[in-house]
Amino acid sequence: MDRSQRTTFLVLLAFGLIYFAIFIPANLTGAQDVNMISVFEHDEYAQYPYVIHMLTPGETFYQSVRNFVVYLHYYYGYPFYFFSALSLLPVKWIFGSDWAFQTPLIMLVLRQMINVLPILLSVYLLVWLQTRFKSRLRSILLFLLLISLPAVFANNLWWHPDSLLTFFSVLTIFFLVKDEFHFGKYFYLSAVSCGLAIGAKILGVLFVITYAVYLGVGLFSHRLTLKKALARTAVYLLLLLGVVVISNPLLLLPMERAEIISVFKANLQQNTLGFWVIGNTNESMFRQIVSVFEKNYASILFFFLSLIALVHGILRRETRLLSLVILTWVAGYLGYFLLFAATMREHYLIPAALPLLSSLGNYLPSAIPLKGTAAAATSKKVVWGRVASYLLMIGFVIQIGLNGSRDVKDILNVQQRETTSTSIQMFRQAEDQILQKIEIDRKLRIYRDWRAYVADRPEYDVRINWDLATYPYLQDLDADVLFIERENMIYFSDAAKISRAIDPARMKEMLAFYSDALNGNVTGYIRALETDFGAVFVRENLYQRYLK
Questions:
Q1: Sheet of 481-485: strands edge to edge?
Q2: Distances (CA, A) of 244 to 189, 215, 251, 257
Q3: Strand 481-485 with 534-539, pairing
Q4: Confidence of residue 381 (pLDDT cuts 50, 70, 90)
Q5: Contact 523/471 with Cβ under 8 angstroms?
């Protein structure tokens, strides 16, 4: 890099450090104890005990290594848990045996290192690919647009694998562009990064379209013979599979491999059919994608302009390869959701949306002309090109401003979530009015729905069921107190859902319980508290003895 490029990089680095720091206060919240994590994001709660288990010493060295490798939660790949556990090692070294009790700090580290940092690295790579840091104006505007996207900003406020998928996907794009159809070391490095993307989240396999096109171009441009193409493909696939296996070593163990495959099939069913019912919305997937993009990324105009920019970029020699790689990745990624997915969440689009929107970087003006300077070219084509680039710049500024306004609201809401949460408020009411009045010589057995908060305290035996409550489950649990979400009561009181259910028998059992809960007459329990969030039910004999 020359001096100007280094200066641009340092400016972006300063922006990145400020951006990283902005999330620290918010990411310290929502985790005063383990149970509180589920109130705001149940995926974090589901994953949390397994990363703690990975760093829990066994009685022997072998057992400690086994704990670190056999992570027991196979909904996501091992790289997600590996890098999560790795980021927590400093916390463990500093706090020693008490490290696992530092829940707020642990969640802060996980959110910052596994979400904020990979997103920042992804954006740096994309800006470099699009501008080479040669234009400070282009680089800064593109950088600010990408990091301010509402979905990206919100994505930095919780811990999950999509940021790692994004980073390894962008790294794969980076290596392919660096390779420039030489099919050398960068081509094989792209296999490594693609393997890590697949290892983090299976959607990385969608790069198969990109590689097929990349090899096809190599063949038709006579940069490769058929024999060399087959040889390069064989080495690539062996390297890719090797990285996938090494990054998920449990694939080598028959029992664990069978469990991973079983979980993968269940996930595939949920993604293609739905979690509880077949199809979670009446909207087409195309309409869902458009709606999510408009609400959480940028104006839909930016979406279509980005597609046009990619197609146009393929026609330009200097941007052909980058545009081709991004377009094929985006096409494969969005194609999967259009053809197979049942529902769309805002963060699902990040691995494709960031590269897609980055393609507009080359159409921004390289600089703002100084007052009094004369234009070098006067042709209508050049003039209109300049007008278009400055209009795009204005659009960028407006979109960044709109994004920033929403981002500020989002992060302030997260910082205040412990005081504004209706779930936490219901628990505090229940503790004052109910729980403290029940005096028994054992732990109080409490069932809670996913987002119903109950403090993690020695006097409580708190249970949660990922399949939610049914009468048979509660009978086996023999719970004293139930914390039930109103949202679940309403959702699972619609008898029409039985005909569309993935598991009709299970749905029928859930409807029986939650319909009763909505009406306040759960068999064997009395409703002791009702709030905007939900309701608290107490076993009849305990209610009659302590609360009547």
A1: 460-463, 444-448, 481-485, 534-539, 525-530
A2: 13, 21, 9, 13
A3: antiparallel
A4: low
A5: yes
3-state secondary structure (DSSP) of residue 529: strand
Q: Are residues 81 and 24 in the same domain?
A: yes
Q: pLDDT digit string (tens) for 259-282? A: 877 777 777 766 666 666 776 666
pLDDT at 113 over 90: yes
- Residue-number span of the structural domain to which 498 is assigned: 422-547
Q: How far apart are CA 297 and CA 350, in angstroms?
A: 9
Alpha helices in 157-284, H assignment, sequence order: 162-179, 185-200, 208-220, 226-247, 254-273
Tell whether 361 is covered by a domain.
Answer: yes
**Do 390 and 441 belong to one domain?**
no
pLDDT at res. 253: 75
Bridge partner residues of 444 (DSSP): 460
Nearest to 85 by CA among 68, 103, 100: 68
Task: Assess whether pLDDT exceeds 60 at residue 372.
Answer: no
Q: Which helix (H) or strand (E) holds 541?
A: helix 540-542
Instruction: Answer whether 242's CB lies under 8 Å from 236's CB.
Output: no
Whether 224 and 336 map to the same domain: the answer is: yes
pLDDT digits (tens, 9 = 90+) for 474-528: 999 999 999 999 999 999 998 888 888 778 889 999 999 999 999 999 999 999 9
pTM (two decimals):
0.92
Q: Say yes or no: 408 and 475 in one domain.
A: no
- Characterize the bridge pairing of strands 444-448 and 460-463: parallel
218 with 78, same domain?
yes
- Domain count along the chain: 2
Instruction: Tell me if 498 is assigned to some domain.
Output: yes
- Cα angle 335-337-340, degrees, rounded to a multiple of 5: 100
**Domain boundary at 412, 446, 474, which?**
412
Place of tokens 């042709």: 379
For residue 125, what pLDDT band results from cuts at 50, 70 and 90?
Answer: very high
Residues 392 and 521 in one domain: no
